UniProtKB/TrEMBL annotation:
Region (Disordered): 298-320
Taxonomic superkingdom: Bacteria
CDD domains noted in UniProt: TM_PBP2
Protein's membrane topology: Multi-pass membrane protein
Matching InterPro entries: AA_ABC_transptr_permease_3TM (IPR010065), ArtM/GltK/GlnP/TcyL/YhdX-like (IPR043429), MetI-like (IPR000515), MetI-like_sf (IPR035906)
UniProt keyword Amino-acid biosynthesis present: no
Organism: Gulosibacter sediminis
Domain ABC transmembrane type-1: residue ranges: 60-268
Membrane-crossing segments per the record: 20-37, 57-84, 96-118, 138-158, 246-267
Entry's family note: Belongs to the binding-protein-dependent transport system permease family.
Keyword vocabulary terms for this entry: Amino-acid transport, Cell membrane, Membrane, Transmembrane, Transmembrane helix, Transport
The protein, known as: Amino acid ABC transporter permease
Localization of this protein: Cell membrane
SUPFAM superfamilies: MetI-like
Length: 320
């Protein structure tokens, strides 16, 4: 085999500084783990004792219920708000903009405090003829609502403002010609949205929606603002107050948040892979781990194409 026909061997560049930094970071991580494992303040025996406590299990279930119910309601509301913002009706566009301006411009903690005070602010609402003494009936709309559902509403109303922008950006990412082509084929607006626009926009909507779901899981720790104390963070804080040991229960809560977040991330990965079929970038496999450059199927013999051989091939083809 002559030198010109040997396979090309790619020599990897050396990165001494990058290797040095990586070694230093690994050493620092090892030191941190050893220090955390041996530090008395963490009380690891209490972490093990309360990690699978029944009250913690129940709190994890309540937190998951808060997350899922709030997110489902937020997605539905966000879709409606996005359609309103894209509507030709100026009133609907203005109302949607005002909603987004209000709920995105104020902290979620402040909003949850207001949700907790609704039963105090609106003790009763009288329904009758305006500017007269005529009253048909009086209702107390927030008195009978459980704190759990107030927390769901508070989280969902805040999240809907962000979901509306995510859905709107996803719809706008689809080329306008798709909708025009659907109309030309006689499809209705509903069929155009359900069969053409929404499926194509999902690859843009799903990744940020997954992030919002994970963010929602952590935002549930703020529902104590309206007086709800059965979520994971509030229950762990309640137990730690009884034990006078805040650090171990904080670790327990953190571990469970990490576990649930990891499960949600796995689901998000598969959803992104499903809706990104055909458009997701493919991995470049031109250079194998062995350092040998892979050639196309027709050039696997190791022969390096030259100008002469290429000319010869073209000449032969012409002659045939």
């Amino acid at each position: 085999m002559s030198a010109s026909t040997e396979p090309i061997v790619a020599v990897k560049l050396r990165h001494p500084w990058r290797t040095t930094v990586a070694i230093v970071l690994v050493l620092l991580l090892a030191v941190f783990i050893y220090d955390a494992a041996t530090r008395e303040t963490f009380r690891w025996h209490l972490v093990g004792a309360y990690l699978f406590d029944t009250r913690i299990f129940q709190a994890v279930g309540v937190t998951l219920a808060l997350t899922i119910l709030s997110m489902v309601l937020a997605v539905v509301m966000g879709l409606v708000l996005a359609v309103m913002r894209l509507s030709d009706n100026p009133v609907l566009r203005t109302l949607s903009w005002l909603y987004l301006w209000l709920f995105r411009g104020t902290p979620v903690y402040v909003q949850l405090v207001f949700w907790g005070l609704l039963s105090t602010i609106y003790r009763s609402i009288e329904v009758g003829v305006p500017f007269t003494d005529t009253t048909f009936f009086t209702i107390a709309p927030f008195e009978a609502i459980d704190l759990f559902w107030l927390a769901v509403l508070g989280l969902a109303f805040n999240e809907a403002a962000y979901m509306a922008e995510i859905v709107r950006s996803g719809i706008l990412s689809v080329d306008a010609g798709q909708e025009e082509a659907s109309k030309a084929l006689g499809m209705s607006w509903r069929d155009t949205m359900l069969r053409i626009i929404i499926p194509q926009s999902m690859r843009v909507i799903i990744p940020p929606t997954g992030n919002e779901l994970i963010s929602m899981l952590k935002t549930t720790s703020l529902v104590t603002a309206l007086g709800f104390t059965l979520d994971l963070y509030a229950r762990s804080r309640e137990i730690s107050a009884a034990l006078y040991e805040p650090v171990p229960l904080l670790i327990v809560a953190s571990i469970w948040y990490l576990v649930v977040t990891s499960v949600l991330m796995v689901g998000q990965h598969y959803l992104e892979a499903y809706f990104g079929r055909g458009v997701a970038p493919q991995k470049d496999t031109g250079v194998a781990d062995t350092g040998v450059l892979k050639l196309p199927a027709g050039e696997q013999t190791g022969a390096v194409p030259t100008a002469d051989s290429a000319t010869s091939t073209r000449t032969t083809g012409d002659g045939a």
